[in-house]
Amino acid sequence: MTLAIAAASWKPLVSLGFTAALLFGQLGHALPPMYSNHWAIYLGSFIALGFILWTAPPRLRYIAAGANVLAAAIMAFLMLSWRYGDGVGWFPPAYAGDRWMLQDYGWQLFALLLLIAGACAAVGLLLALYQERGSLFRARELAQNSLKETEIDLIVEQERTRIARDLHDVLAHSLAVIAAQADGTRYLSKDQPKAVLNALDTIARSARSALVDAQRAIEGVRDDGMVTPQPRLSDIPALIEGMQRGSLKIHRSESGTPVELSTGQEVAVFRIVQECLTNALKHGGRGTDVRLHLDWSGPGLTLHVASAIAPATQEAAADPAPSRVGRGLPGMRERAHLAGGWLTAGPDGEHFRVMVFIPFGARTAIPGDGQAGVETEAPSIETGGGEDQPVFAGSGLTGRTLPEREADDRG
């Protein structure tokens, strides 16, 4: 009976087996019958029944209840029969045999055992109902909290969509005017220097591209649920070509064997490169040297971008106003983080350097690719003079704090 109670919550069928072993062992005289002060041992079966009804699934509960009804009948017979308990001290000896003893006292004892079993079963069911009620309360509270969060997210998303559409309306008009004016000026000024014509062409192309990007960002999903095309790594050469046309001097290089990235990671890499080139043009001006290197030889894509820092003007030096921290660097860091990687950025001597790492899955060895799975030396970039120089010669990325890195308004 001790083993039956111990195994009730763990293995209900094993618990019922221990009870059956005791009763059938006594019926077969393999175990001694109950004495007058031993009958309470049978109550262990009913205590085990309570634990089973508390923790077991519904099907096992019915099996346990039926087994205990049969066990109660066998217990009543063992306690009353002259061959076993002989009344266990409660009833007079059965001189007339088991028939009259069971007929006179059997139903009384059986009803008493069922009453005790019912009390234990009721305790088990109450504990199960209490536990289930607590689980329902927790589930309801969780559902209510989730509903509130969803409502808040929906309100924020609606407001964000409204602001985005208003912003798009303003940008659409302004950028369309810029593109039209730039194209018109370029067509009417054929005798202007080539640099001026290239600048006007760059203005028009950038305005149209910005208009398309704004539309793509705002209308991420069309009414029919189809996702609009997103930029990929294959669009980076076109981006570089557009920025090089009379604006930047970009030296692009690549090492290792390219590995396919997820769509979200490719979008993140493209947007980071786009932001780096835009910042280089914004803060360095036209003709700024930019070095861009993609390294596929490690456990992920490592992107190096280094742009020359324009010397400070005398007016800026005379008016040391506090720099405004833009949204470019935090946005790039967030994109890299959402893609599973990281980003560091900061001034390093005469250059502003950005390093991005985007991990990908385990690489498979490709025949002829000697760099797969092997650490390589620092990649080199081909400069304008034909010499190979390391991408990052300095260590300024790790020696400055975040506010210091963002102090130059690279956003």
Task: Please provide a written account of the structure.
- It is a single chain.
- The protein is of the alpha+beta class.
- 55% of the residues lie in helices and 11% in strands.
- The strands form two sheets. The chain has a five-stranded mixed beta sheet.
- β4 (342-348) and β5 form a beta hairpin.
- It is rod-shaped.
- Residues 221-226, 313-322 and 362-411 have low confidence and may be disordered.
Task: Write a brief structural summary.
This protein has 411 residues and is α+β, with helices and mostly antiparallel strands.
Shape: rod-shaped
State the end-to-end CA separation: 75 Å
Structural class: alpha+beta
Rg (CA only): 41 Å
Write out key terms for the chains shown.
alpha+beta, disordered C terminus, two-stranded antiparallel ribbon
SSE layout:
Layout: H1 2-6, H2 12-27, H3 43-55, H4 58-80, H5 98-188, H6 194-218, H7 236-244, E1 248-255, H8 263-284, E2 288-295, E3 300-308, H9 314-318, H10 328-338, E4 342-348, E5 351-359, E6 380-382, E7 388-390, H11 402-405
Parallel strand pairs: 1-2
Antiparallel strand pairs: 2-3, 3-5, 4-5, 6-7
Helix pairs in contact: 2-4, 3-4, 3-5, 4-5, 5-6, 7-8, 8-10
